[in-house]
Amino acid sequence: MVAEEGSVVEVKDLLARFTTDVIGTCAFGIECSSLKDPNAEFRVMGKKFLVEQRHNRLVIAFMASFVDLARKMGLKQTPDDIEAFFMRIVRETVEYREKNNIRRNDFMDMLIDLKNKKLMKSDHGDELTNLSLEEIAAQAFVFFNAGFETSSTTLGFTLYELAQNQEIQDKARKEVLEKLEKYSGELSYECMKEMHYLEQILSETLRMYTVLPILNRMALEDYVVPGNPKYVIKKNMQILIPAGAIHRDERYYPNPNTFNPDNFSHDKVTERDSVLFLPFGEGPRNCIGLRFGKMQALVGLALLLKNFRFSVCQQTQIPLTYSKETFLISTDKGIYLRVEKN
């Protein structure tokens, strides 16, 4: 509980529990209760996947570089107990919904439809096969991991910057309160779409704290580097894109180490090439949870700013240091902020 005069709160873990509950409800249709119980099974398993790797970094790099060979060797990235947990959750959810004819119009319903309904032919005329239970579990697992840790980490970094930039925080809160008043206090989709400054703040956080700073892709065709014809990226070559470095390049973002939501004003965005902002990747292989993750973070941020004020305290680490144990950008000592009720 936050007292009227304020309390010091470690927001990173709290936000991870919030996003776990949201993803659990929307993707799996179950109540995780992570906010009430930090040791809830869903939260424990999600956290374990991020911090307890099945293999060392060398093996993980091998698996990423030689996918087919790794598959033939039976190498798996997910620990057995986590795999068994998500398979059980999906199996029980699917069986319960099918037995009781329950529909929630959520992500799981879409996957169940792909399991049961007759599918159309592909563009090449091939018959498409229905999803197996294992494939449903895999898709749900990807959606879960794409949404819970990335969103909570981004929210944590956002509050960290707002705590140090009170004018920006006040401007964002003013926008939230004005839009809520316009929509009679209802945080609807239409209401959220009008919170432009809040979205600028989120985008600036994603620029400065790119959760997945390196993207890997494969070239679809030979590509000659412009101005350097001796350099050719061959078809099927693995490519690493330094998204985090691009986001901190002063050629594209002046004073790149300064938190400035105006970097994402309408004029600034339209004058930049879209590939200079890659927090979710780009093209057909971009993040599966892009829209969901952004909306989840924006709604969470709007509610937090409506009800609370955030500021730095003695325990706030400035500058932050980062964990070397996870493949996502994350602090190693948490984010401690003073939180006061509005």
From TrEMBL:
Stated family: Belongs to the cytochrome P450 family.
Annotated keywords: Endoplasmic reticulum, Heme, Iron, Membrane, Metal-binding, Microsome, Monooxygenase, Oxidoreductase
UniProt key word DNA-binding: no
One GO cellular component term noted in the UniProt record for this chain: endoplasmic reticulum membrane
Full protein name: Cytochrome P450
InterPro entries: Cyt_P450, Cyt_P450_CS, Cyt_P450_E_grp-I, Cyt_P450_sf, Insect_CytP450_Detox
Membrane topology of the entry: Peripheral membrane protein
UniProt subcellular location: Endoplasmic reticulum membrane; Microsome membrane
Species the sequence originates in: Musca domestica (House fly)
Binding site for heme: 287
Molecular-function annotations in GO: heme binding; iron ion binding; monooxygenase activity; oxidoreductase activity, acting on paired donors, with incorporation or reduction of molecular oxygen
Cofactor: heme
